[in-house]
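Pipeline run #58 for the internal structure catalog. This entry was flagged by the ingest filter as a single-chain record with no existing model, so it goes straight to prediction. Upstream metadata was stripped on purpose; only the residue string is passed forward. Reviewer on rotation: M.T. Logging verbosity set to normal.
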Amino acid sequence: MASVPLSSPSQAGLLGPPFPLLPPPFGACLRYRLPRLPTGLSSSVRKGGLLPLPLLVPPRAAGGKDGRAVTKEELEEEEEEFEVTKEGEEVNQETGGGSGATKEAAARGSGRFAADYVSLGVREPVYEVIEVRSNGRMSTKKISRRQLLKSSGLRLRDTRSVDPSLWLMNSMPSLLVREQAILLNLGSLRAIAMYARVLIFNYNSPGGKAFLGLLLSRLNPRNINGGPAMPFQLEVVEAALLSRIQRLEQRLMKIEPHVATLLEVLPNRLTADVLEQLRLSKQALVELGSRAGDLKQMLIDLLDDPHEIRRICIMGRNCTLDRLSDIVECTVPLEKQIAEEEEEEIEMLLENYLQRCESCHGQAERLLNSAREMEDSISVNLSSRRLEVSRVELLLQVGTFCVAIGALIAGIFGMNLKSYLETNAV
């Protein structure tokens, strides 16, 4: 019986019966153990004429959602993401109401942030805030970042502008409008205004105290003169702008008479104390002008963007704003009319505070220019005095030179005169 050589794996698979392949141990080298041959095979097969080889099937890797092979670590990460997403959906079902897509995204994002805090071992920041309701009730509470994102529908990057721990990075004034909240950053005042409440972060600061007192007085029913009440978020925005501009005006009124007095005294009294007071006043004017200029630029940018103003008007209403056409669509026609009227009121309100801010900024710039002109005049006066001192010094040098010339002449002619001192006996 002639043996047929093995020319290809397919022929070997056809000639020999498919015997099962024992799986290799985990973590060891791949070694294939030859199975025992049945007794019915011929001796030529036993001697190696025909070698029955099993069909090798490559191990199948676990597949991901996109069809690619994934490792064990990637599978664990996908399971964690699925758990976080499921947690966000449960939170969304419990809260309910409002925009469905926005709340689902906020809950999902807050769940992921919380999972990140737990996995990294980082303590979640907790803010101590004052909550003021639309009815004037005030309460102090502690709220975590996760709860803040869930209740306001904000994202993590939105809270950077009002985070008190980042006051060095976000010192520029800003007014950010989101779907369910307005973020206010006006100097030391940092707050989040929503449809029926406002959260004030650094309420112990001068700006926070001024804003809180002004807002509570505006929410008092006794101060309403029988007219229609403005929406709560507009009351918060107006109180914030008014408190900020009033603080700038008060500071300007405090600096202005002091600078005017220095400008009258300086031409006649050039002392170190008066010059130091002028330097400090000039520094205060530079700071005041910078703050007023930043606030003015913020108001100009807000007035130049009607999309943001319309987003403020539709807050808390069943209205949507088309981003392309920038048209407000409401389920109730009356709400659309009210939103359009509020848009005009907001524009007039912003223009009013813009004029006051420009007036404050212009007055600070005029005082600063006067102080700089006084410094220039002082420099010219000091230069003239230096010239007088240099003139006197030059006259003294000429006189000294003349005396030295006379002494030189006397010395030259006096060399040949006898003094008889050498012959005088002591």
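catalog note: Residues 1-35, 37-70, 81-88, 90-103 have pLDDT under 50 and may be disordered.
catalog note: DSSP finds ten helices and eight strands in the chain.
status: ready for reviewer M.T.
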